[in-house]
Design goal:
7-stranded mixed sheet, binds ligand F0G, 16% strand, 4-stranded mixed sheet, alpha/beta
Length: 454
């Protein structure tokens, strides 16, 4: 399903884009759960404080797009300052696999809080040791060791450092469109110039190759390469799904060259694609794997870098303090993560991710077929679904229409034509239908608007 929008459509879309986004706030139907005057005042104040003390540009951008102030989250729903509910299909870019404030995660963190919250660092850390063992079991022993941190970027930093010390080599191969975070090291392997260039010189040497292209990897592979780092499915890049043989092919190329293979599962991990880890489907194991986002159950931030015994013995063999983190492996985050893994089992979230994902994909494909000039492609695995438009601006327009209908999504930063749908894995069949209907209405309204302006 590929299409090319006509020139007239392109011009109409460009005109429609700013008009609709500006009008968005007038369209809303507040539930009046909170007195609207006090809600408005709260909104204004937060927008102004954000502009004055966090980030003026971002404040303008978000106000312009029509985003409110988030005040509460529960299950698949986020409520704004007016008490308006939104079905969360953005899900913190994959953080809310279990939804917002899953009662079992909240209870696990509360219970832990009664004992010890953060580590004194002088003692053995029981929650971290137990979580690492749980994770090792989930990789069937292939990755028996874990280093804990607090975010995806930190997990990637650790993976890059471990790859260097384990191989004694400096270089990395990464992919265009790949996203691995914005700290110096993680940014160095993030495949978008827009984010990298202003911070040059970064960590090197890093060679970028097109995603899903094994020949390109073979071509640049050399004895200085410590590791190849890839996402099993590119998230920020626009939900790019590689060929079935891609990950196995990378494994083979790395083995032949004595390089390590790093799978960044920060976004794809913990059931998002219908597997606990997306790479399981390919039947290959990495030397290092990064996790974050959903691992904390949507309640606590946590990052994890899992590795083989060989990698960890080289990384920490000479100096057990070669890499450390004050907050990494804290008891609260580890309690949340241990309970997250249990909830994934008990609530059969892998099967639910696959089933609800198939439902959503089928419904979206039917919607897309109605608008061949606007929608270029629908693709996904499990509940990681991308809807690609033929033009950049259409994505923005549809986002604001979906917001108006109580569905929260965003486009992929590395590819604004693609809307990313990553709802909680606990989303119900009825909620998936609600999202698909809202999408249908939203595209219809954008289509009408473009027709009027053509
Ligand atoms: N790796 C992947 C695959 C990611 O998707 C992200 C973040 C990171 C690493 C960095 O994690 O933000 O916790 O430091 N992705 C978000 C996104 C920002 O938009 O997809 P972080």
């Amino acid at each position: 399903m590929r299409s090319n929008a006509s020139f007239r459509t392109r011009k109409a879309v460009a005109r429609a884009s700013s008009a609709v986004v500006r009008k968005f706030r007038e369209f809303g139907t507040p539930l009046n759960v909170i007195e609207s005057s006090s809600a408005d005042a709260r909104y204004q104040e937060v927008v102004e404080l954000t502009a004055a003390h966090l980030n003026p540009g971002l404040s303008r951008l978000m106000a312009f797009a029509g985003f409110g102030v988030e005040t509460r989250g529960e299950g698949c729903t986020v409520y704004d300052h007016e008490g308006r509910p939104f079905l969360d299909c953005l899900g913190g870019y994959g953080t809310f696999a279990l939804g917002h404030r899953h009662p079992r995660i909240v209870a696990a963190v509360r219970a832990q809080l009664e004992d010890i919250a953060l580590s004194a660092k002088a003692f053995f850390n029981e929650p971290a040791a137990r979580l690492a063992a749980d994770l090792a079991a989930r990789t069937e022993g292939a990755l028996p060791y874990t280093f804990f941190s607090n975010s995806g970027a930190e997990a990637v930093e650790a993976a890059l450092k471990f790859a260097r010390i384990a191989t004694g080599r400096p270089g990395f191969i990464s992919t265009f469109g790949g996203y691995h975070g914005k700290t110096m090291g993680a940014l160095s392997v993030t495949g978008r110039d827009k984010y990298r260039k202003p911070f040059d010189p970064l960590v090197g040497p890093v060679q970028f190759v097109p995603y899903n292209d094994l020949d390109a990897v073979r071509h640049v592979m050399n004895p200085d390469v410590a590791a190849v780092i890839v996402e099993p499915i590119q998230g920020e890049g626009g939900i790019v799904i590689p060929d079935d043989a891609y990950l196995a092919g990378l494994r083979e190329i790395c083995d032949r060259n004595g390089s390590l293979l790093i799978f960044d599962e920060v976004q794809t991990g913990i059931g998002r694609t219908g597997h606990l880890f997306a790479h399981e489907r390919a039947g290959v194991r990495p030397d290092l794997m990064t996790l974050a986002k959903a691992l904390g159950g949507g309640v606590m931030p946590i990052g994890a870098t899992l590795g083989t015994a060989d990698v960890f013995s080289r990384a920490f063999g000479e100096n057990p303090l070669a890499h450390t983190s004050t907050f990494g492996g804290n008891a609260l985050a580890c309690a949340a993560a241990r309970e997250t893994l249990r909830v994934v089992d008990d609530e059969q979230l892998l099967a639910r991710s696959a089933e609800r994902g198939a439902q959503m994909l089928a419904r979206f494909a039917a919607v897309a077929a109605k608008y061949p000039e606007l929608v270029a492609d629908v693709r996904g695995r499990g509940l990681m679904i991308g809807l690609e438009f033929a033009l950049d601006e259409v994505g923005e327009l549809v986002v604001s229409q979906l917001l108006k209908r109580g569905v929260c999504v965003a486009y992929a930063l590395n590819n604004p034509r693609v809307l990313r749908f990553e709802p909680p894995l606990v989303i119900t069949e009825v909620e998936v239908d609600t999202v698909a209907n809202a999408l249908d209405e939203s595209i219809a309204e954008v289509d009408e608007l473009i027709a009027e302006l053509r």
